[in-house]
Amino acid sequence: MSNQAAWITEAKAKPLQVKEAPMPKAGKGEVVVKNHAVAVNPVDWKIQDYGIFLQKYPNICGTDVAGEVHEVGEGVTHVKKGDRVLGHAFSLVTNNPAQGGFQLYTACNSLVVAKIPDSLDYNAAAVLPLAISTASACLFKKETLALPLPSNDAKPSTSGKSVLIWGGSSSIGAVAIQLAVGAGVKVVSVASKHNLEKLKEMGASAAFDYNSPSVTDDIVAALEGTDYAGVSDCIGTPDAAKAWAPIYKKLGGRYGSVMPGAEGVPEGIEGASVFAPSVALDDKYIGDVVWAKWVPEALESGKLKALPPPIVIEGGLGAVQKGYDKQKKGVSFGKIVVAL
Fold first, then answer.
1. pTM for this predicted structure
2. 156 pLDDT exceeds 70?
3. DSSP state, 8?
4. What are the angstrom distances between the C-alpha of 56 and each of 11, 95, 204?
5. In terms of C-beta density within 10 A (0-12 exposed, 13-18 middle, 19 or more buried), how is residue 156 classed?
6. Strands 113-115 and 161-166, bridge-based pairing
7. Is 17 exposed, middle or buried (0-12, 13-18, 19+ CB in 10 A)?
8. Helix (H, G, I), strand (E, B), or coil: what is residue 93?
């Protein structure tokens, strides 16, 4: 049995090189996943274009994997060999290639590995892991919006709280809507006009076209009478912050942003940018509820849907570079997934 990976051989190297890779071993609290599908995120091509984040080369990027459990390490009891799972790969934290997603076998922190139902195919499952961790950090961290954690009760108790999810049709926004609904929080969201109905189908009480001249007034009206927590900015650009700043000026609230060191946020607002892996590390109290309990049950019950849908590229590891290039051009309510 051998492993192969799509390596980034040095800073800014193109294209990725498919070559043999060491076979990962499951350390204590780890799961090795035999990958069937991996997803591409904007961070991946940005690392390649700008030489950011990675501290050493050659290395293996990729954060979203779906496949079957190949090996479990000491202390892992919630999954066993052969189980169908999705997982969040942490090579961006550890700089350890064994923990990168773009290979046939990946070692994952067991807390961010969850079983998936037989009805969910691997390509669809691969859209979720990074989005689950990022959206959870934006919504639930004490330093961000500090919303109540989700529960799998048949009808979650209404918290009375509300949240604005900016960019609800992005992969993180789609999961953020579903997580907030699972926490009994009223969701108001924005996206492009053609995606608004999809946001409502995922549970948003109201959804608005962010290009509409009345978007600020519409959002404020939709949030009236609620305990407004703030904005989960799932886009994270200065333009996005500028667009939701008028809501802060009228309603106050905090923010959580997906962009490290988010720029352009309104002066005086409290909140933070998030680092997704924190939900299994410094903010493990989030992972213990969201990943360990809510995700597997919500996938089984249908409360958590694998959205936006995968845009599948066939061709195995050799097609990962093609995935980078396609992602860089931009996608609307979809996520690039490479089938292995």
1. 0.97
2. no
3. B
4. 9, 7, 42
5. middle
6. unpaired
7. middle
8. helix
